[in-house]
Amino acid sequence: MKIAKALTIAGSDSGGGAGIQADLKTFQELGVYGMSALTAVTAQNTLGVQGVYPLEEDAVVQQLRSVGSDLPPDAVKTGMLYSAEIVRAAAGEIAALGWAKVVVDPVMIAKGGSTLLQQEAVSAVIESLLPVSLVVTPNIPEAEALTGVKITALHSKLEAARRLQDYGARYVIIKGGHDGDPDTANDLVYDGSGFTELPGTRIRTSHTHGTGCTFSAAIAAGLAKGLSVMEAAGLAKEFIQAAIQDSLAIGGGHGPTNQWA
Ligand code: PLP
Known about the structure:
By secondary structure, the chain is α/β, with parallel strands linked by helices. The protein has helices spanning about 20-30, 55-70, 85-95, 120-130, 140-145, 155-165, 210-225, 230-245, and strands at about 5-15, 35-45, 50-55, 75-80, 100-105, 135, 170-175, 185-190, 195-200.
């Protein structure tokens, strides 16, 4: 039996709710062998991020080469990349190793406000990373930061999605979590011709730490198993909906989404 393998290129969350910890739990839950290339260590808990310690880009490159030379992944996701140097190094290795099923979660700022991608790295994401991506999964603030489009209504979401596709992402998923609708949290998948809606209900909870990480990891898991982007995105939406519904009230702050819901 072929074992599907997925790789996350992301930061560590010591509190276990987001970052590589969320990604590896998601891979495991979805029946995919999980691997990780660490970009940064964060000192973090449910109350927030207390410290960020990025790795040298050589350390990221070497991890990717070690995985690539022995355990080539069937799909890859990127999360917190922190600096322009790490973004460019990761994108360069993804291209050199020929990895095609790449999900880019353009993580920028933690819910508590801490910087997970330096401002000067945003252009590196556009110039280096999106060209090697298959899917990009911005929330609304991230889509605005990457495109300069102020998102107010559907037509501006479409404009942002078009620009992100022009930068090189084959599929763009604009997540609805920040769109202010009190009842729904619908995500929109743009494939170049139009939007397909992934419908979701808004769940009233403050325990949503790691939501974006878990969603993009679930898409990568589906792709690793051979699903199409639309199939993987649909299943990832169901997975994240359940993970938020059953989120964990642990710690004194914002608890994590629950990958084993
Ligand atoms: N910490 C790390 C290492 C992450 O990769 C991410 C998410 O992308 C976060 C924190 C953000 O978590 P939150 O869902 O609380 O914004």
